[in-house]
Design brief:
Layout lengths: L1 E4 L2 E8 L5 E8 L2 E4 L3 E6 L2 E4 L11 H12 L3 E6 L8 E3 L6 H14 L2 H8 L11 E4 L3 H11 L3 E5 L6 H14 L4 E5 L1 H5 L1 H7 L6 E3 L4 H8 L8 E5 L2 E4 L39 E4 L2 E2 L9 H4 L5 E2 L2 H13 L4 E4 L8 H13 L3 E4 L10 H10 L4 E3 L12 H8 L1 H12 L3 E8 L6 H16 L5 E6 L7 H6 L26 H16 L15
Parallel strand pairs: 5-7, 5-10, 10-11, 11-12, 15-18, 18-19, 20-21, 21-22
Antiparallel strand pairs: 1-4, 2-3, 6-9, 8-9, 12-13, 13-14, 16-17
Helix pairs in contact: 3-17, 10-11, 11-12, 12-14, 13-15, 15-17
């Protein structure tokens, strides 16, 4: 169906010799708008570093919001999650060994070798060039093409949700364009916003548009056949055209997540990106966006958007819809969950009202855990786990866990209350900040071991500094990245840069050593949070 719209018109009156009046209207700026389009939104396969990366995935929340909006507007929308639907298909791209055999040997070596010996065997930086062992996870190319053929979409939207997923996103776009040249392909997501020109050029014109910023309104204009005035980038005969980033859309403008869009996707059990839900059907959600912490390594902290909570009446509407769809546990992904304490308390009351379990995966700052918050979480009675990271907010912090334990000792003591109430509490630390020395690394490892031994947390995750595009870290230390086109290195689990005093292999040793020593004292390290699970 087509709709013809116009921005202005002229009215003409004509008087004939018999004094009859004729009316003429001339329309200006005519536009033909397509009322309904067929759209497939696709999460591409994962490429991961088979040594350092755990294989993690969950519902494509960004695509889900966009798909829900477009469906609400009358478009025919399907979502293809190639990872969730192809989790059992793990293929080594750089080795003839199958992934299971490779992983088994890696874990045997972790237990029998020193950290230095392990890195000597597995480091991708040993040859002078970056040469990683890569595993691909997801539906095969043939299965993806078959699904696209079945749906026959006019537009395909590809989620380039992280820099480390650059390569498989580009490969997917080329695959689709080669086999279905008439399909318009649009890329979106955080990486597409920050590196649109790189994506467009690397795709060899397979990607027609990159959406920059929040994408639902921009994408709707594209599928209507319009040329958005902002929020889009593309190549025009090889010339890069960038119309800037679209405005931040308020959460209250978002459409409610439409559960029917994901009804055919089977969730991995247990979850592969967060704590086990004990068989309960889970769903990632956000009830607020924006973060005040301004962490220099974080994309969310680098954006000056401000805090944006979803109004509580809309929170309740969404909870009702999710519960009716059979979801039993919420995985909260809010950037700064406790920024507005009253809003958080209101959300907890609604969660309790509708008898949904929940856990936090986005992270809660230790300084925000006062007695009132602790009491509210415990009294709620439905919390499964909490993530309380001790990550360095800026490059000048060389011992983040040491700082947290010395400056927030009383609040760290409160973590024991959470654990005693049956809540699984975990933390994380980042190794490889610019000012860290080997001595700092050893001190941090000991601090985390003490935190685990003394019962403050159940598990400590091990991260490596990742200098993500658009962050302060990238601005300051991007030159320390060994190879900027080593996209797998932009994972938070994968070392990819030297520091002021340590080589990249020194950072790899720190990551391996921390995993080895934590595994020696914590009860378990599940594979959703570690490439070296216990």
């Amino acid at each position: 169906m087509l709709l013809i719209i116009y921005k202005s018109f002229h009215i003409w009156l004509k008087l004939d010799k018999n004094f009859n009046i004729s009316l003429y209207i001339t329309f200006l700026n005519l536009k033909v708008v397509k009322m309904k389009s067929k759209i497939m939104l696709v999460k591409p396969p994962i490429h991961a570093d088979a040594v350092f990366d755990p294989i993690r995935t969950t519902q494509p929340l960004g695509l889900w919001y966009i798909g829900s909006y477009l469906k609400e507007k009358g478009h025919d929308v399907t979502i293809l999650d190639t990872v969730m639907e192809g989790m059992d298909n793990k293929t080594m791209l750089t080795s003839e060994t199958d992934y299971e055999t490779f992983s088994e040997q890696k874990h045997l070596d972790l237990e029998s070798l020193t950290a230095e010996e392990f890195v000597d065997k597995y480091s991708p930086h040993s040859s002078g060039e970056v040469s990683r062992e890569i595993v691909r996870v997801g539906l095969s190319d043939g299965e993806i093409l078959e699904r696209i053929k079945e749906e026959d979409p006019e537009y395909v939207g590809i989620s380039v949700f992280a820099t480390c997923n650059h390569t498989p996103s580009i490969e997917l776009a080329k695959l689709i364009k080669e086999n279905f040249p008439d399909i318009k392909i649009i890329a979106g997501g955080s990486h597409a916003t920050d590196m649109a020109e790189k994506i467009l050029r690397d795709s060899d014109s397979s990607i027609d548009f990159c959406v920059k910023g929040d994408g639902q309104y921009v994408l709707e204009e594209i599928v209507q056949g319009l040329n958005p005035e902002t929020g889009v980038a593309y190549l025009d005969n090889g010339k890069y055209v960038d119309k800037g980033e679209f405005r931040r859309i308020k959460m209250d403008e978002f459409s409610m997540l439409d559960s029917s869009l994901l009804e055919n996707i089977v969730l991995p059990m247990p979850a592969t990106h967060t704590q086990d839900t004990n068989g309960r059907k889970y769903v990632d959600v956000m009830f607020s966006r924006g973060c005040k912490k301004r962490c220099e390594y974080c994309v969310a902290g680098s954006k000056k958007y401000g805090f944006d909570p979803l109004s509580l009446d809309k929170v309740e509407d969404q909870l009702i819809e999710l519960k009716e769809a059979g979801y039993e546990e919420l995985v909260l992904q809010d950037d700064d969950l406790l920024r507005d304490k009253e809003h958080f308390f209101g959300v907890l009351d609604l969660i309790q009202k509708h008898k949904l379990n929940w856990q936090d995966n986005g992270g809660i700052a230790i300084e925000d855990l006062d007695e009132e918050v602790i009491d509210k979480i415990i009294d709620n009675g439905l919390c499964n786990s909490l993530y309380v990271p001790f990550n360095p907010r800026n490059y000048k912090v060389n011992q983040a866990a040491g700082y947290a334990t010395s400056h927030h000792h009383k609040k760290i003591e409160r973590l024991k209350r959470l654990r005693e109430s049956g809540i699984y509490v975990y933390t994380s630390g980042i190794f490889g900040t610019d000012v860290q020395t080997k001595e700092d690394v050893n001190s941090e490892i000991e601090t985390y071991k003490n935190i685990i031994r003394e019962g403050y947390v159940d598990q400590a995750l091990v991260f490596s500094v990742s200098h993500l595009p658009s962050t302060k870290n990238h601005e300051l230390f991007g030159d320390d990245i060994i190879n900027p086109d080593d996209f797998l290195g932009y994972s938070i689990f994968v070392p990819h840069a030297k520091t002021g005093t340590m080589s990249v292999k020194d950072v790899e040793v720190a990551v391996v050593k921390a995993n080895q020593e934590y595994n020696g004292i914590q009860k378990h390290a599940r594979d959703w949070g570690s490439s070296f699970p216990k």
